[in-house]
Design goal:
With 141 residues, the chain is an alpha+beta fold. The chain contains four helices and four strands, in the order ααββαββα.
């Protein structure tokens, strides 16, 4: 049987079952599109996570103080200010592989200016923070 005869038989079968042919084609198109979309979403998410990890730094270590328990309730990490500025200085001085240590403290407070006020987060740190996080200052000091 030649290829032309096979093609003619296939076209007759497609014309005889138009609805089945259209639905099968639609299913294949939707299936291939879904696979391509899922692979693209997965690759995009993987690239985003890799970018965030790269920005975080592969040689960065966080040390957080302990937590406080009050009335049987644990208040979470960082509620006990047990790490001091002297501890950060000692870490950078006494551990040679540590190039810089940047202690930081977070809090939130109400800021008032004239008749306006905002509730804002406040982050205090040392000048070594720029070196530790590789965050250059765009403007200011």
């Amino acid at each position: 049987m030649s290829i032309f005869v096979s093609a003619r038989i296939a076209l007759r079968a497609l014309r005889a079952n138009v609805l089945r042919s259209v639905l099968t084609t639609l299913g294949i198109i939707i299936g291939v599109g879904a696979v391509i979309a899922m692979i693209s979403i997965g690759a995009g998410a993987q690239a985003r996570v890799a970018e965030q990890l790269k920005r975080l730094g592969s040689n960065l270590v966080y040390i957080t103080p302990g937590s406080v328990s009050s009335g049987g309730v644990r208040l979470g990490y960082g509620t006990r200010p047990s790490i001091t500025l002297d501890d950060a200085t000692a870490i950078s001085r006494e551990i040679p592989p540590v190039l810089a240590a940047a202690p930081s403290v977070w809090t939130s407070s109400q800021l008032v200016y004239g008749n306006m006020n905002w509730w804002a987060g406040i982050h205090g740190t040392s000048p070594a923070f720029d070196d530790v996080r590789s965050w250059p200052v765009a403007a200011g000091r």
